[in-house]
Amino acid sequence: MSLATPALPQSRPETARPSVSLGDRLMETRQLSLRLAEPLSDEDQVVQAMDDASPTKWHLAHTTWFFEAFLLPRLIPDYRPFDESFEYCFNSYYESVGPRHPRPRRGLLTRPSAAAVRAYRAHVDEALEGLFADGVPEEAAAIVELGINHEQQHQELLLTDILSLFAAEPLKPAYRTDAPGTATQSIAPLAFTAFDGGLHDVGHDGAGFAYDNEGPRHQQLIRPFKLANRCVTNAEWIAFIEDGGYRTATLWLADGWTAINTEDWDGPLYFEQADGGYLQMSLLGLRPVDPAAPVTHVNYFEADAFARWAGYRLPSEFEWEHASAALSETGRNLGADHLRPMAAEGDAGLEQMFGDVWEWTSSAYLPYPGFKAAPGAIGEYNGKFMCNQFVLKGGSCATPDGHVRRTYRNFFYPHQRWQFTGLRLAADA
Q1: Average pLDDT estimate for 93-109
Q2: Which residues pair with 412 in a beta bridge?
Q3: Tell me, what's the pLDDT at 180?
Q4: What is the spatial distance between Cα 30 and Cα 24, in angstroms, rounded to a whole number?
Q5: CA–CA distance, 302 with 89 (Å, rounded to integer)
Q6: Which of 107, 135, 166, 250 could form a disulfide with 48 if both were Cys (CB 3.0 to 4.6 A apart)?
């Protein structure tokens, strides 16, 4: 391997968590990836629908390569890589490691086969289990924790990427076949909670695992603001469409107006008009749009235009984090097994802050004051992407249990919308 001794990330797992627990979590995460791929044929796992997506087979291999590149050769002196050529095939963006297969052409990797990738995972898992059987050195725990969180990110990507593939297929197959059905709940009335301004601490405090981009913790001036009790719904988005939202230039940022006209967008991704209503492709197949559920698969340009049309704005990432301070970091994520965003229940206070859809903020993805990327290849994980992207908060219906925190900073380019992305409205108080 070209990188046997990587630099360790700055964040560390909780010291109170014994290595056996860390090992159990690792193997549970590894097994979940395989379970997510079970409904798919080997043919499903090879194809790439667009440049931003990756084949399922590639996700399964890349999350395995991570441990082979950054951990096993360092701790097992006689470790033998499964196949030296896999480094080129399954490296993602680590320039420090070496050359790699171009991302837009991952769908051309018909070899190695899906069966070979499963054998690769078994080879690496056996080495990982042996490693934990002998006790993991303390300095390796941070890499293992990072590897768990890295694989969880790819589990969500696996689902959103297979949705992009199935949506592009003429038969519109379902990833999972549940009973169809439509909305059973009324739309919760839109209400706003006011928050005081002032200097507030934001960012991760260093207790437990966090990505390096979540720190350092620092003070941020936040002016008084109001935040909506729930996410914007499909019904509200349809009103935006039917009021000419996609045809009104004054609602859009210049780059957004160019994008919707160049790409001919007239609604969220996977929306289709049929028999006077709307359908949307989902992991459960092509289904009628649930009016009460959060709108999803909209990009930053669309979210910003909708907020302007509605007379509000998007919250900053700091407003969102401050507003969530008293809330549990749980919600309807992958563990809830809905595989789609669900309607708000109409309870008092803020709902859907965690789970259902990733929420666009108005904050550019930039380094916090004092941020310094870790040395070596691990430092490429987040820092080099801090340009021309926007922060999203809260997780989605496809985010694995326990993966997000209130300080978590997801980030995408403003034109991207194949993820489960939605929005929540804000206003100055």
Answers
A1: 88
A2: 390
A3: 59
A4: 10
A5: 35
A6: 107
Write 243-246 long-range contacts (CB < 8 A, 24+).
Answer: 243/309, 245/305, 245/306, 245/309
Residue 316: pLDDT over 90? yes
What is the average per-residue pLDDT within 12-24? 55
- Residue 404 token pair: 């997000």
Residues 197 and 54 in one domain: no
Q: What is the pLDDT of residue 135?
A: 75
Q: Which pair of tokens denotes residue 38?
A: 């079970």
Percentage of the chain beyond pLDDT 90 is: 82
Phi, psi torsion values for 411, nearest 5 degrees = -155, 140
Residue 308, domain member (yes or no): yes
Are 119 and 201 in a shared domain?
no
Tell me whether residue 5 is in a domain: no
Residues 210, 216, 217, 220, CA torsion sign: negative
Judged against a pLDDT cut of 50, whether residue 161 lies above it is answered with: yes
Residue 295: closest CA among 380, 352, 236, 251: 236
Q: Chain-wide mean pLDDT for the chain?
A: 92
CATH number at residue 292: 3.90.1580.10
- The pLDDT value given to residue 297: 98
Domain range for residue 290?
192-428
Asked whether residue 279 falls in the same domain as residue 413, the answer is yes
Say which residue the tokens 């078994």 belong to: 122
In a domain, 187, yes or no: no
Cα–Cα distance for residue pair 15/396, rounded to 1 Å: 28
CB 65 within 8 A of CB 72: no
Same domain, 164 and 220: no
- Residue 6 located in a structural domain: no
Residue pair 313/287 in contact (Cβ under 8 Å)? The answer is: no
Domain count of the fold of the chain = 2
196 and 107 in a common domain: no
Same domain, 135 and 243: no
If you ran DSSP here, which 8-state letter would residue 192 be given? E
Mean pLDDT value across residues 284-313? 97
Residue 226 shares a structural domain with residue 359 = yes
pLDDT tier for residue 12 given thresholds of 50, 70 and 90: very low
